[in-house]
Specification:
Structural class: alpha+beta
CATH class: Alpha Beta
Order of helices and strands: HEEHEEEEH
CATH superfamily: START domain
Number of helices: 3
CATH topology: Alpha-D-Glucose-1,6-Bisphosphate, Chain A, domain 4
CATH architecture: 2-Layer Sandwich
Number of domains: 1
Shape: elongated
Radius of gyration: 24 Å
Largest sheet: 6 strands, antiparallel
Length: 157
């Protein structure tokens, strides 16, 4: 007696396709980790992998620029203002990248440049993870654009 033909589930094809899809997504994720530079911190003017992230110079007094940094952070939906130290010229914050939802610590330092202007240095560092996939550079870029808008001038103006 021959065995009855095996009945295939009508969901079998869909499950196999979903399994293949998951395998492809996981493979691409691991591939991105292998290729993407393992950067977890970006600092203006100090990170070779992010050469376009540079310190900002303003022709405005240090106190005004520091206030604009704090205002920009406080007004951002992706950042939470931490400590503002006017004597040291620093602001600390926590940020969450809107794309990856990665958490980062943000440190802003404003220094007088000697001619009445100010230079702004920013460091953004991921709290966890192997690579930030550009999140820290995006956080710094967002902060720099917001500061320029809040001051009503562009850098070097």
């Amino acid at each position: 007696m021959t065995p009855a033909p095996r009945r295939r589930s009508r969901y079998g094809r869909a499950l196999r396709a979903a399994g293949v899809g998951v395998a492809v997504v996981v493979s691409l994720g691991f591939g991105a980790l292998a290729v993407w530079p393992p950067i977890t911190a970006v600092e203006t003017g100090q990170t070779p992998e992010a050469p376009d992230v540079k310190p900002q110079a303003f022709r405005l007094p240090r106190g005004r620029v520091l206030a604009a940094a704090a205002e920009s952070i406080d007004g951002s939906p992706h950042m939470e203002l931490g400590v503002v130290d006017e004597a040291a010229g620093t602001v600390t914050a926590t940020a969450r990248d809107p794309w990856t939802h990665a958490r980062s610590t943000v440190d802003v330092r404003v220094e007088a440049n000697g001619d009445g202007g100010s230079i702004v240095f920013v460091r953004s560092a991921s709290v966890s993870g192997r690579a930030d996939f550009g999140a820290n550079a995006r956080i710094i870029g967002e902060l720099q654009r917001s500061m320029a808008d809040n001051l009503g001038v562009g850098p070097d103006e």
